[in-house]
Amino acid sequence: MHNTKTTVGIIANPLSGRDVRRLVTKASVFQNAEKSNMVLRMLGVLGKLGVDEVFMLPDVSGVASRVIHAMRHGRAAEISAFPRVTFLEMPIRDSADDSLRAAELMVSMGVSVIIVMGGDGTHRVVANASGDTPLLTLSTGTNNVFPEIREATITGLAAGLVASGKVRLKDVASRNKVLRCEVNGSRKDMALVDLGVSTECWIGARALWEASCLTELFVSFAEPDAIGLSSIPALIHPVSRTDAYGLRLVVAPPGEGFMTVEAPIAPGVLLPVSVAEISEVRPKEVFKVETARGTLALDGEREIEFSENDSVKVWLEMDGPVTVDVNKVMLAAAKHHVLVRHHRN
Amino acid sequence: MAELKKEDLLKAYRTMREIRDFEERVHKEFATGKIPGFVHLYAGEEAVATGVCSHLTDDDRITSTHRGHGHCIAKGVDIIGMMAEIFGKKTGSCCGKGGSMHIADLEKGMLGANGIVGAGGPLGCGAALAAKFKGKGGVAVVFFGDGASNQGTILESMNLANIWNLPVIFLAENNGYAESTGVKYNVPTPNIADRAAGFNMPGVTVDGNDFFAVYEAAGEAIKRAREGGGPTLLECKTNRFYGHFEGDAMTYKAPGEVKRQREECDCLKIFAAKATAAGLVTAAELEAIDKEVAALIDEAVEKALAAPNPTEADLLTDVYVSY
Amino acid sequence: MSRKISFKDAINEALSQEMERDGSVIVMGLDNAGGRGTEGQLDAWGGVLGVTKGLYGKYGDRVIDTPISESSYIGAAVGAAACGMRPVVEMMFSDFFGVCFDQMMNQAAKFRYMFGGKAVTPVTMRTCYGGGFRAAAQHSQVLYSVFAHIPGLKVVVPSTPYDAKGLLTQCIRDNDPVIFMEHKVLYAMKGEVPEESYTIPFGKANVVREGKDATIVAIGWMVHKALQAAQSLSKAGVECEVIDPRTVSPLDFDTIIKSVEKTGRLVIVDESNPRCSMASDISSVVAQNAFKALKGPIQMVTAPHTPSPFSGALEDLYLPSPAKIEAAVKATM
Q1: To probe the interface with A, which of B170, B184, B233 has the most A CB atoms within 10 Å?
Q2: In whole numbers, what is the pLDDT of chain C averaged over residues?
């Protein structure tokens, strides 16, 4: 199906930002009311830029219901600028699967771009289904690396500029790297930023916040100003999102190895991590996980349990999701006076 | 996560199995008409009570709900006495004066199942206040449901616990239904944990069907409380396999919903699969526990049926210590 | 025994002495110290009427200020009591029990029975009550009859500084939940109170005045009004026996019945509303147990079946008075 209308998808995951990091670290609690406000701010600008229709995830109790309420009861002048908002017809399970299914549907409907609101986890889930459809990433919280922390109005503006063709997509979008893993040749999954190997046996409360359990770490990029596991190699050897390689780091017991780095592995947490090895990882170079038993943490969340009997492989690929660089969009808009109207004389 | 040794895993499995078999059996016995009154079953939610209470000692207190059998068993209340109580017998935990909704064992730190929705919040704060005065690191856990999350008592208690920095954990068991009304109708936020922000405390949501998720998050919350870090709101999303009460036809549930939950979200199945896959326990060991628990529940029912009723003399005692 | 102190100071002294004696006694309530969370002075109020003033200085954090959140803090007192503490929790006005009645009626009162005799809940709930202050319908009602209706609760209604100290000390040492009702008019009343600690047992009425012609049972503030009426009647040659039950649950029926058997006449003075009141309760018990001794109809002097009015002109009409009591005694003749 191909749209003649200009359409945009918005995935705002009402479940994000409630994991155990609120308890064990000083991670922020991001109110769902603010998520729906962000959506409303974006709807206002998307409509003005000529987007005809926005597709959203139909969570009954959270973000969507606030949006519906605002559209029914809000100020007429504000609402008249909104594009048509359609909630996807899909069953809701109140899990990460909702975001995945929504992304699949939006791609099949041919939306121009998908705006993703959530943390690294939500973006990882969406990236599994987004294919060639560009994503605009928006962090709901302070605990994330992949999505941007930015005022939603600007993200909405950038989405509208790209979706309506006022800024050319090819000038502002790029494909990301991705870390892929598989267990025994099946059970495939991926991480956008980091893939950690933990000796903890169980997925449990998911987040990985204790460096003492970390044995190996793969990163697709490593920015020194990032929070989380990728900060460990980043503070030794930064790698950008566009470099054609990633890093692999082997953790040593405390005080051993050849160096110790003080890394902000979680909000409010600066911990020493001793390093046994650090090396660059080339695309498609396959690594067998050396840890006998434990869990794989994808973008900071334990997702896969494995034992001695399992063979776990990890490698880097260049075929990750396409993302739109909002800075570049706005620079292009400025350069070409897209949002400027010249007055005569 | 505190490392779970083999014996810890077997103990947790035994507790979950005890709760499940207890509830399945009460369901059957209720249908025969031998059990009087109102009964609310905990089947499906076992991982929550077990994951939390695995961290508690008899000096730690819990407050419970009308759906309290699971909390009782997880807190170590004697199963023989519980079954007799549910049958209204003199040998019951409460001499047949409390019944399903009021089973308590204060020596085990179980401050009672409670027929009043949300009443456990203030009581748990009191238990935590007492623990704070005692100064030995004791904590209190307030179990409450998604329905009770709207009670003023629960919200007031969250406020009180935070201003007094009490060692209390608000444990929201979100099974999706307040009686027959869906949580999406009754609660304006996607998660009950979202409400924590208003009280400036951590709010965490975990998969309540995964013992390991509950165990880990509860362990962190309890550790924090013991160390003087204050309260936490921990929400466990779970399912109840039976109706609100026995006799509820559950017409409000979608066709196949319970069947799907029993197939995909059964905390006992999930636990067994994970623990055996990790190679820490064997299927044979779990089966052996199944048999022992089945025998225990049989014994509990036999003893309950054979036990005497309370007598007229019991009617007037235990109102006051002295009067 | 010559020292005279006020009803309010007698309560304060009982609290202080019990806190000194027993480390598990804690005091909780709105502004019980006062001034917490402000830049001004601590122990600013000592409770809204100053009853707990000075305890903070002596016992520090065992005097706990609470938010205006009665369900949570009354319930917390109940929970703490079930876990080894002896909390004395204050409810500013007894009318406010309406917001936390569950914790009293379904929790504290029922634990012991529901749990087969295994629970001990030694909580004292202090509250001020009653009319005379033009405090209107939500700050004046007399609710001890409601509390006395509930099995598992004890209800104490002192009328003098001496009784207030001795009964409150007993409340704190008692192992059951007790509601201790302080009439706001009585706070300033002075009376002889021993300095040392003492207790007055529950369920033992005080025969305040002996007489042979009529029995007047009066509760709380009404004891003093009954005495005024008795004095006036004495001038007319009618000698009334005035009985102060001191606790309405348990209630000392024996003393009342014995007195009625002697006098043959009964007037009950109860500041609460008349239906299902202590007055109607005592009437029914006497009618069942001493019917043959009665020489005339039992009379009840109560407030009418209306909320407490605000206007002084109305409240004076609403409250039992010595004149109404005198008239009631005459009606039994």
Answers
A1: B184
A2: 97
Q: Kindly identify which residue of chain B lies nearest to residue C100, measuring between CA atoms.
A: B153
Residue C206: strand, helix, or coil: strand
Q: How far apart are CA A315 and CA A283, in angstroms?
A: 7
The yes-or-no answer on residue C139 being catalytic is: yes
Rounded (10°) angle between helices C161-173 and C7-21: 30
Same domain, C176 and C49: yes
Kindly write down the DSSP assignment for every residue of C71-85, as one continuous string: HHHHHHHHHHHHTT-
C305 touches chain B (CB under 8 A): no
Chain B partners of C101 at a C-beta cutoff of 8 Å? none
- Which range marks the domain in which residue C317 is found? 206-332
Q: Which fold has domain A178-317?
A: Tumour Suppressor Smad4 (2.60.200)
DSSP C164-190: HHHHHHHHHH-SS-EEEEEEGGGTT-E
Instruction: Report chain C residues whose CB lies below 8 A from the CB of B124.
Output: 79
Q: What pLDDT, in 10s, does the model give residues B123-172?
A: 999 999 999 999 999 999 999 999 999 999 999 999 999 999 999 999 99
Judge whether C200 lies within some domain.
no
pTM above 0.80, yes or no: yes
Buried b (16+ CB within 10 A) or exposed e, A142-153: ebbbbbeeeebe
Residues B34-49 have pLDDT tens digits of 999 999 999 999 999 9
C179 and C212 co-located in one domain = no
What pLDDT does residue C286 have?
A: 98
Contact criterion met (CB < 8 Å) for C203 and B323 = yes
Q: Which range marks the domain in which residue B47 is found?
A: 6-241+255-304
In this structure, are residues B88 and B99 in contact, taking their beta carbons and an 8 Å threshold? yes
Q: Is A79 on the interface with B (CB under 8 A)?
A: no
Pairing assessment for the beta strands C25-29 and A269-281 based on DSSP bridges: unpaired
B171 touches B50 (CB < 8 A): no
Please report, for the domain that includes residue C276, its CATH number. 3.40.50.920
- Assigned domain for B316 exists: no
Residues C72 and C143 placed together within one structural domain of the fold: yes
Structure tokens at A112: 């121009």
Q: For residue A107, what are its two tokens?
A: 């791609």
Closest CB to A19 among B188, B204, B237: B204
We report the CATH number of the domain holding residue B186 as 3.40.50.970
Q: Do chains A and B touch (3 or more CB pairs under 8 A)?
A: yes
Q: Pick the residue from chain B with its C-alpha nearest to C66.
A: B160
- The predicted structure's pLDDT at residue A61: 58
On whether both C113 and C149 belong to a single domain, the answer is yes
Report residue A133 as tokens. Answer: 């459809």
Choices 3.40.50, 1.10.150, 1.10.10, 1.25.40: CATH for A7-176+321-335: 3.40.50
What is the arithmetic mean of pLDDT over A178-202?
A: 95
Q: Do A14 and B190 touch (CB under 8 A)?
A: yes
Residues in contact with B143: Cβ distance below 8 Å, sequence separation at least 6, in sequence order = B48, B49, B52, B62, B63, B64, B65, B68, B71, B120, B171, B173
Tell me what ipTM this predicted complex has.
0.94
What pLDDT digit, counting tens, does each position of A34-90 carry? 888 899 999 999 999 999 999 998 876 577 878 888 888 878 777 888 999 999 999
The domain segmentation of chain A, as residue ranges, is: 7-176+321-335, 178-317
Q: Could you say which of B97, B104, B321 has the minimum Cβ distance to residue C176?
A: B321
Of C71, C79, C113, the CB nearest to B111: C79
| Closest chain B residue to A29, measured at CA | B197
Chain A, chain B: beta-carbon pairs less than 8 Å apart:
99
Which residues, in sequence order, are CB contacts of B207 under 8 Å at separation 6+? B213, B214, B236, B237
- Number of structural domains, chain C? 2
Q: What is the pLDDT of residue A1?
A: 44
Task: Name chain B contacts of A22, Cβ cutoff 8 Å.
Answer: 193, 196, 202-204
